[in-house]
Amino acid sequence: MLFCSSQPAYDISGKVVVLTGALGAIGRRLAVRLAERGARLALVDVSSSDSDGATSLCAELNSGSGQRVAAYLMADLRRGSDITRMLEWAAEEYGHAADILINNAGIASPATLYDDETFERLAAMLDVNLRAPIEATRVFVKHVQAAGRSGVVVHMASMGGLMPNRGGEVYGAAKAGLIHLTRASRFLAPQIRVCAVAPYYVRTPMVMNNPKLQNNPTVYPVLMLEVDQVCDAALHCIGDTRSAGRTYALIGGWTYARMWLYDVTTLHITLLAGLALLAAMVRRVIGLGP
Ligand SMILES: NC(=O)c1ccc[n+]([C@@H]2O[C@H](COP(=O)([O-])OP(=O)(O)OC[C@H]3O[C@@H](n4cnc5c(N)ncnc54)[C@H](O)[C@@H]3O)[C@@H](O)[C@H]2O)c1
Q: Which residues are listed as membrane-spanning (predicted)?
């Protein structure tokens, strides 16, 4: 994995991390990688603790470190009350407000928007992929500010949020929303850094079991990422003290954190606004406008 910056400066050791989607393919591995770095984990997913191996994951992490470094909460992030509870629970478990929030939970749809998609699936996709991370970030920022601490938020976005593609219209729109939110939240730094990771397709059940993607020629196996590469990027994004507002795009083992997309768009809009203002002034001077 190639990173554009030097060694991470922010130490994850001892930090309280809320990780959503912790029982998924990327979430599970990220939990292990964070624990190896000495983080204390508040793991969250929609399954009950008895199913999908939540109990065994916590046991594995706790036995590996010799102390209690992982706890699990079942929460449905489509519900605002569960999101509030998640952050309160993490603070109760570890004695202070969470230091790091990783909005990793996400869902894709097997259906096609203009063919067989349903209103219910659309609502779920927008709720889990966009509304929940926004709300979790909002509550996290309040907790961190009230406690006078500092914090880091990582959104698990997607290349689909940078590169519009047929078949991923709504998933991509939600992930684009996260990338936009990341950029727009730059002003919270240095107290709170909000950054994002936008991977290309990752070798996970979300991709391999999705009938829509199996026949998609853009899913080039040679560019497919491994889960550990996504974890590398997430850990780097947390550790890089310059990551506020940045999205780390991942493709074929490369990471690009400096994207000029927003700078160019902002310049473009500023120039257009300036020209419109100038035109209005000229019209007024020559007596053609109000
Ligand atoms: N797999 C890929 O190719 C890929 C590519 C780019 C981005 N991503 C993103 O990475 C993240 C993780 O993906 P993954 O491949 O590990 O997927 P996954 O399906 O294995 O894991 C997602 C987890 O989110 C949880 N979740 C879903 N709805 C929830 C809800 N309402 N409340 C709480 N938890 C809920 C699921 O139970 C699951 O454990 C997602 O946000 C995904 O969009 C994945």
A: 260-282
The per-residue pLDDT for range 83-103, each reduced to its tens digit, is 999 999 999 999 999 999 999
* Angle, alpha carbons 94-104-5 (nearest 5°): 90
Any atom of ligand 1 within 6 Å of the Cβ of 103: no
Nearest to 158 by CA among 60, 91, 251, 53: 251
Determine the distance separating the centroid of ligand 1 and the alpha carbon of 125, expressed in angstroms.
11
Question: What is the rounded radius of gyration, in angstroms, for the C-alpha atoms of the chain?
Answer: 21
Number of neighbours of residue 290 by Cβ within 10 angstroms: 5
Atom of ligand 1 nearest to the CA of 20: 34
Instruction: Find out whether the beta carbon of 27 lies less than 6 Å from any atom of ligand 1.
Output: yes
User: What pTM was estimated for this model as a whole?
Assistant: 0.92
The residues spanned by each domain of the chain are 16-259, 262-290
Q: Sign of the C-alpha dihedral, residues 224, 210, 174, 152?
A: negative
Q: Are 257 and 207 a contacting pair, CB within 8 Å?
A: no
Q: Is the dihedral of CA 170, 172, 175, 177 positive or negative?
A: negative
User: What is the residue-averaged pLDDT of the chain?
Assistant: 91
Q: Which residues contact 192 (CB under 8 A, 6 or more apart)?
A: 141, 144, 145, 150, 151, 152, 153, 185
Residue 75 is classified by DSSP as -
Domain 16-259 part of CATH 3.40.50.720: yes
The reply to whether ligand 1 has any atom less than 6 angstroms from the CB of 154 is: no
For 140-173, the pLDDT digits (tens) are 999 999 999 999 999 999 999 998 888 899 999 9
pLDDT digits (tens, 9 = 90+) for 200-245: 999 998 888 877 777 666 667 778 899 999 999 999 999 999 999 9
Residue 1 pLDDT greater than 60, yes or no: no
